[in-house]
Design a protein that fits this description.
Number of domains: 1
Radius of gyration: 18 Å
CATH architecture: Alpha-Beta Barrel
Number of helices: 10
Shape: globular
Order of helices and strands: EEEHEHEEHHEHHHEHEHEH
Number of strands: 10
């Protein structure tokens, strides 16, 4: 894990390197010169409120053994109480460990919360703004933005979740809602620091999470394009937006992930229930590895 710095300010990183990824050069105005062919393929497992410290380590080790594929970043995000067991089980396995949330303050009277300092040595990634946190803990875009700043300043690689409700999609407001979430969470953030820290976005249509329903791959790709457009134009990221990996989440399985990874704008999956099944994870990572090889070959041709 990167060395911890607990300053509230987001660091300025003129030349970033993040876990399991490439170094990130920037131009004179902080614009990334990395094209989308350099984006990594990522399969991130969100175990949510499943497993215990007694069985999480064994499950993590089994998944790690079944998913040894080149060209794919693998991340497992277990419950907080299982972080230590999963970390120990994954030593030397090439699989990163992530937390499912982090508090925006360093310490204080916040009963039941987890600070970035508490994750030091346990996790190198963190999920932020998941729809279940927005729904159940009433997290706002502003609060998620504060958590994002804390994650970056503490050396945690963030996965920022965005997505619309079914009613919002049916009303034709999906792109508007996601753009508002991005603007709310990323306002005032330095693109250099975010890209240098390995910033990842997960698009999760809320109506597809845990329901068995999925967005079409075309709809997911269109949203990924809209997300990068919002970063580039509305938030002033310019070409740096092209270096941000975008994952699809929402009832992802080994049976459907190929459709999503077939879209050049989608770079992996944030996987819920299926991530608790080694066979499912093996299938998803294998498909991601195939796509990674194809994209690398295409890049070589260009």
């Amino acid at each position: 894990m990167a060395s911890q710095s607990h300053s509230p300010a987001v660091p300025s990183l003129p030349f970033g390197r993040f876990a399991n990824g490439p170094s990130v050069p920037f131009g004179a105005r902080g614009r990334s010169v990395i094209m989308h062919a350099m984006r990594p393929l990522i399969i991130a497992a969100n175990w949510k409120m499943n497993t215990t410290s007694a069985d999480a380590g064994e499950l993590a080790a089994t998944i790690a053994a079944r998913t040894e594929e080149p060209g794919v970043i693998r991340v497992i995000c277990p419950p907080f109480v299982c972080l230590s067991a999963v970390r120990d089980a994954l030593v030397g396995k090439g699989v990163a460990v992530g937390a499912q949330n982090v508090h925006h303050e360093l310490a204080g009277a916040y009963t039941g919360e987890i600070s970035a300092a508490m994750l030091d040595g346990l996790a190198t990634w963190v999920i932020l703004g998941h729809s279940e946190r927005r729904r159940d803990a009433h997290e706002t875009d502003e609060l998620i933005g504060k958590k994002l700043a804390r994650a970056i300043s503490s050396g945690l690689r963030p996965i920022l979740c965005v997505g619309e409700l079914l009613a919002e999609r049916e009303a034709g407001r999906a792109v508007e809602i996601v753009a508002d979430q991005l603007r709310g969470a990323l306002a005032g953030k330095d693109p250099e620091a975010l890209v240098g820290a390995g910033f990842v976005i997960a698009y999760e249509p809320v109506w597809a999470i845990g329901t068995g329903r999925t967005a079409s791959s075309a709809d997911a790709a269109a949203m990924a394009d809209a997300i990068r457009s919002t970063l580039a134009a509305d938030l002033g990221w310019g070409q740096a937006a092209e270096s941000v990996p975008i994952l699809y989440g929402g009832s992802v399985t080994s049976a459907n992930i190929g459709e999503f990874l077939g879209e050049p704008s989608i770079d992996g999956g944030l996987v819920g229930g299926a991530s608790l099944k080694p066979d499912e994870m093996a299938g998803m990572v294998a498909r991601a590895a195939l796509v990674a090889r194809t994209r690398a070959q295409d890049k070589g041709v260009r």
